[in-house]
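Running log. JK asked me to keep both predictions on one page so they can be read side by side. First protein, sequence followed by its tokens:
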Amino acid sequence: MSRQEKQRGKNFEYRIVNLAKGLGLPSRRIPLSGSAQEKLDVEIAGMRFECKYRGREFVQIYRWLEKAVEEGGEGLIISSYRKEPLVIVSAKEYFEFLKFFNSNVDGFITSRNVKE
């Protein structure tokens, strides 16, 4: 990976962290992510995320999301053969949801912490 690509990725991580902070969510960029003990790139409201910044690879997903929002939808749900479906919404909308959820519920309920 070139120095310029690393810098773009780092700048993108800071953009995400600053967006979350601007909405009042505790967030931080994880230093040396991937090459040190801590994995993933950012931590927002106690949840860790990997960040990927690409020039043109996600264009079709953006088109589908924009169309869904134009038609009054909240987001996009996609899946690939035999893969877990993904829900796609804008980062700002997701962070606003986290902020609302944090202020109205004691803790998160996720598939990771629910005992069956």
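And the second, directly underneath as requested:
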Amino acid sequence: MSKRLHIISFDNPYPPNYGGVIDVFYKLKSLKQAGVKITLHIFEYGRVAAAELENYCEEVIYYKRRTFVNPFIGTLPYIVSTRNDHQLLKNLLKDDAPILFEGLHTCHFLNHPDLKNRKKMVRMHNIEHDYYRKLEEVESNFFKKYFFSKEAERLQQYESILHYANIIWAISPNDFNTLKSRYKHVQLLPAFHANEQISSKTGIGKFAFYHGNLSVGENDEAARFLVNKVFNDLDVPLIIAGNNPSEALKNAVANYAHISLQQNISTEQINTLTAEAQLNVLPTFQGTGIKLKLLNVLFQGRWVIANQTMVENTGLESLCRIANFPEEFKQAVSELMKQQFNDIQKENRSQVLNREFSNAENIKKLIQAI
């Protein structure tokens, strides 16, 4: 008898071109390959309906996210109160299949009495209130800063709804330890991603590369760190790619002839730059969740330089050159720009990644729980 599953996604997971939706999309794909029949519920707000998803799901149902809600009022987090369509509850009640809630965002009905006897699982993509506190720290706009502060408070209070979940799936060892200290039934389920095998090129490239959704404060902060404090006096070309960079980042890049900014380019173009680069440089100042771009550059790129916050407790530390301060980044860049990436390094990387981050192996944990 085939297994069935409802998945409630906080956003349209196609195209899979940013953090959380990458995990959702490739989880869908892996479930389909394993024969699971999926009803996918999507809260959409700006990303158009995707026929591609019908290749992996029995049914795809869209709900409008209620973004007209005043983000400064109410006790529910804004990311939850805008995703509470009662038609979703009606659709969930059409059968008795287990339900996977993707993120706290989608947990509005997790404690609903009509779902009391259903198997309910929550995928935690990070520790949400920690994430929003970090967004508050790096935000300069007063109203956004206040919103992030208030949202962090609400999320911290709201997180206790996880007591109603049968299983909480943590995405990283750090998050697993944090959640395990507060809740029962926490299990580790590593991130799902686009890569089935190592495709890193051997040899040597000519530039360093950083990419991320630049409209997110932590990524903008990381990019400005690289421009202003690392590559500012290095004779090494740096390409930065991502959506919606800030004026501060654009102005910083404009000061240097060897640093360029490529805005709003496709996933394919980002993958090409990742593969062609000699170095992928990945600082982060936000420690929750796991950075899917770290996985991608390890599967697709040559040398990787990252800070401790990026790699801590990921099991990927040995595959990266660790640098925490500007001078350490500068030294690592200068040394690795001259070193060929060879088959020995590629094989070593392959063994670690296939052991810990195989979609085919990790999906077995989820299927066993359904």
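Observation for JK regarding the second prediction: The chain has a mean pLDDT of 93.
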